[in-house]
């Protein structure tokens, strides 16, 4: 598919790799600075001295002597300075493409989605396929999945393929179904589901079934991937995100990241997890890559999937869905296959991160880690991504098996009504259980799962210690016993996320030897109420002591 984008413009930044000098080169002064130490205590400071290697030399208090002749000085005039946020779970290229393609994430009804699709089609007559995503039938209050017929009424002259908000289902019109050769006789692949009306495909394909149509969808050109990566980077920097995990990096994604790094234009630090064992091995060979481009990029792990998502009823449950008694979701792999893939990654030293949302999927992954832990010893930092619905009996196993819980606070505030409908309140003990994880001594890493949710860390931070959405609902928080404190949430969005990616010795806090990755914001987040916190504006983003983003007036 031919996609037309504006000319790609990047601002190259030279990354100095020289050794730390005896005297610092730069001073950022007169700040209301705050960070956390390695134990989670809040540290306040008024100045930060930065070496030529882009790392912190020391933090300064009000009475401390400043360098007499720094190479450069930035007087912040009392503005608030924080370490940059780290998103422990995102999809970088997907974020860029979502911003460049048809985005339905803001639609509140099916009719509103149809109107947006119609307008997009009219504005893009040259597109042979209409591609986008972000729809959510739960938000629409539809009570069902949308159908191909719903789409055909808007556009029937070319294929349409629109991903669900969670990325675990997609919606096709009849032209797309025909182009893919899918019929009533098409077998449903293991780990997937074809929604049907009678025996005919209805238009929605869940999890592994999406591949039936995706094989016919034209893939982006390298230059289009480059532009999507640049767009994603702009979005992340504007939110104050200075580092992110990329969960499920394809080989094409990796090449785009390398091209941007080679141009000196890769600003955001990316902790890459290959999309499956084969991708990681093709990139890194017999082990993780070294950090590249001044600690900007590293493929250090493998991303696997145990199940789908709650919204599309693909999450694998121990008991059937309350609102669909004939369904329990599906596991993507047998126990043997999952353990074999995890073992293949671990034997070469790759970190393993496994997506698990349903309680049966979480148990399967915990069982696999238990089986492998005797063979693969040392600091493995096994990760479970999402860990949304966990049987209470399995919660202590995260700690005993030394598993990192990589979780997303805004999932809880977005999912709360849907989760109760899917499972019923009585089965939600152990769901989105952040506080329980911490009480059990489980390392907690927070992220957003963008573009499933917005990458906005301020919304995630507020959701974590209130369990309330942007409207302040429900009063007192949803399942408030699982709230964490403001400081615990901040830790999980910085040092917790860095630890989860084996990067805690490089970034995540402001301290001597750490990367000078920080943000200037328009308010003090430790003194702001939840509504004010959500409204925080990032004025500047600095990475490695270099200013890479300034908010436009």
Main beta-sheet strand count, sense and barrel state: 8 strands, mixed
- Proportion of residues in extended strands: 15-25%
What coarse outline follows from CA principal-axis ratios?
A: globular
Task: Tell me the span between the first and last alpha carbons.
Answer: 37 Å
| Overall pLDDT confidence | 94
Helix fraction bin: 25-40%
The total strand number stands at 22
Number of helical elements: 18
Based on secondary structure, the structural category is: alpha/beta
Radius of gyration: 23 Å
Low-confidence stretches: 1-24
What would your notes on this structure say?
It is a single chain. Helices cover 29% and strands 23% of the residues. The protein is of the alpha/beta class and 553 residues long. The strands form three sheets. Strands 1, 2, 3, 4, 5, 20, 21 and 22 form an eight-stranded mixed beta sheet that branches. An eight-stranded parallel beta sheet has the order 6-13-14-15-16-17-18-19. Helix 1 (92-100) crosses helix 7. The chain is globular, with a radius of gyration of 23 Å.
């Amino acid at each position: 598919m031919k996609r037309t984008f504006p000319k790609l413009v990047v601002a190259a930044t030279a990354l100095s790799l020289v050794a730390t000098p005896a005297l610092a080169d730069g001073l950022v002064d007169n700040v209301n600075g705050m960070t956390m130490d390695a134990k989670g205590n809040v540290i306040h400071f008024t100045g930060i001295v930065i070496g030529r290697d882009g790392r912190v030399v020391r933090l300064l208090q009000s009475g401390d002597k400043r360098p007499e002749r720094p190479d450069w000085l930035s007087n912040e005039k009392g503005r608030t300075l924080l370490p940059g946020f780290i998103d422990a779970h995102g999809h970088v290229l997907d974020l860029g493409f979502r911003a460049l393609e048809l985005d339905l994430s803001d639609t509140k009804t099916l009719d509103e989605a149809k109107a947006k699709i119609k307008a997009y089609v009219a504005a893009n007559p040259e597109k042979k396929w209409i591609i986008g995503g972000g729809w959510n039938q739960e938000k629409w209050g539809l009570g069902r999945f949308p159908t191909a017929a719903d789409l055909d009424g808007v556009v029937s002259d070319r294929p349409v393929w629109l991903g669900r908000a969670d990325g675990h289902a997609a919606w096709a019109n009849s032209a797309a179904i025909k182009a893919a050769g899918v019929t009533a006789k098409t077998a449903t692949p293991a780990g997937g589901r074809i929604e049907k009306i009678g025996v005919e495909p209805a238009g929605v394909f869940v999890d592994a079934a999406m591949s039936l149509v995706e094989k016919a969808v034209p893939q982006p050109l390298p230059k289009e991937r480059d532009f999507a990566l640049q767009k994603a980077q702009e979005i992340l920097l504007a939110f104050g995100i200075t580092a992110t995990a990329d969960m499920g990096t394809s080989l094409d994604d990796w090449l785009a990241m390398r091209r941007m790094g080679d141009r000196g234009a890769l600003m955001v630090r990316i902790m890459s997890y290959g999309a499956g064992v084969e991708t990681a091995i093709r990139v890194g060979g017999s082990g993780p890559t070294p950090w590249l481009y001044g600690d900007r990029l590293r493929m250090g792990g493998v991303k696997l999937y145990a199940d789908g998502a709650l919204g599309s009823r693909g999450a694998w449950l121990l008991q059937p869905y309350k609102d669909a008694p004939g369904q329990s979701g599906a596991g993507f792999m047998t126990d043997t296959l999952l353990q074999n893939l995890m073992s293949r990654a671990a034997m070469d030293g790759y970190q393993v991160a496994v997506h698990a949302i349903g309680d049966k999927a979480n148990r399967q992954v915990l069982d696999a880690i238990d089986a492998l832990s005797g063979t693969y010893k040392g600091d493995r930092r096994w990760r479970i991504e999402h860990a949304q619905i966990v049987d209470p009996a399995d919660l202590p196993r995260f700690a005993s098996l030394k598993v990192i819980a990589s979780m997303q606070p805004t999932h809880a505030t977005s999912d709360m009504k849907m989760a109760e409908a899917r499972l019923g309140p009585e089965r939600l003990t152990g769901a989105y259980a952040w506080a329980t994880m911490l009480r059990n001594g489980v390392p907690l890493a927070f992220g957003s799962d963008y573009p499933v949710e917005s990458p906005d860390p301020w919304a995630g931070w507020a959701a974590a210690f209130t369990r309330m959405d942007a409207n302040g609902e429900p009063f007192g928080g949803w399942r408030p016993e699982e709230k964490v404190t403001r400081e615990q949430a901040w830790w999980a969005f910085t040092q917790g996320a860095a630890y989860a990616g084996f990067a805690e010795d490089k970034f995540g806090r402001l301290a001597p030897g750490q990367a000078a990755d920080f943000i200037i914001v328009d308010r003090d987040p430790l003194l702001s109420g939840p509504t004010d916190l959500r409204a925080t504006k990032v004025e500047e983003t600095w990475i490695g002591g270099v200013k890479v983003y300034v908010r436009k007036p």
